[in-house]
Amino acid sequence: MAILIQHKETKVQYILIGTGYSYFKDSLPSPLGGVFFPDVTEGETHMVAVSDANGTIKWLPSEDVLVISVDGVSTSELLKGKNDAYELSEKCPACGYPVNGRMEFCPSCELRLIDEEESY
Q1: In terms of domains, do 76 and 27 share one?
Q2: Cβ distance 24 to 45 under 8 Å?
Q3: Same domain membership, residue 48 and residue 16
Q4: Backbone angle region of 72, left / alpha / beta, with phi > 0 → left and psi within -120 to 50 → alpha
Q5: What is the pLDDT of residues 94-120, one digit of tens each?
Q6: Which residues of 84-111 are buried (b: 16+ CB within 10 A; e: fewer)?
Q7: Do 65 and 87 fall within a single domain?
Q8: Does 107 share its domain with 54?
Q9: Which of 49, 65, 110, 116 gives 17 a disulfide partner, CB atoms 3.0 to 4.6 angstroms apart?
Q10: Taking phi first (over 0 means left), then psi (-120 to 50 degrees means alpha), and beta for anything else, what does residue 11 get?
């Protein structure tokens, strides 16, 4: 299966090889507290491994790329008609997760959907 992706900024196209995830945490002694109160930096990165036309492997941040096609078929064609129920459903105003009028909280982001004054 060949997945063609495009870098959003440069519009260069690549072949998707795989994905990667990394969590990092780094601590340095702080100027005031030294090692007892270190400055801590932590986070996570989501990357994709891609190949260019020469076969060179590169890593790109996943948020910087779009999937263009899978086995030569565009993503819009592959998903045509698959999301009709989602498109017609009510959505959480905060995260867009499908909800219905009877839900008190969004299952995804836990936003309160029904005020206590509105509940019957």
Answers
A1: yes
A2: yes
A3: yes
A4: left
A5: 888 888 878 888 888 989 987 766 445
A6: eeeeeeeebeeeebbbeeeeeebeeeee
A7: no
A8: no
A9: 49
A10: left
- Tokens 């009709």 belong to 84
**69 and 118 part of one domain:** no
Q: Looking at residue 66, what is its pLDDT? A: 96
Whether 4 and 67 have beta carbons less than 8 Å apart is answered as yes
Neighbours of 14 (CB within 10 A): 22
Total domain count, the chain: 2
- 6-42, pLDDT tens digit by residue? 999 999 999 999 999 888 899 899 888 888 888 889 9
Domain containing 39 equals: 3-80
93 pLDDT more than 50: yes
